[in-house]
Amino acid sequence: MSQGIKAKIKIQLYRSVICTPKTHKNIVSVLGLRKLNQVVVRPDNPSIRGVVAKLPHLLRIVEE
Fold it and tell me: Is the overall model pTM greater than 0.85, yes or no?
């Protein structure tokens, strides 16, 4: 059986979460982002893209 290639996206935390609402801090930590300018790789699906779209002032998608 051949495995299909799963799409991945890289998400970067480029602004600090200081003085942001608690829900924004929770979303950032659930994504696994701890430090400024840290990049994590997550599956490319509508739910992850929706989270990034909700926090455009904190997160960006890094092009490869």
Answer: yes
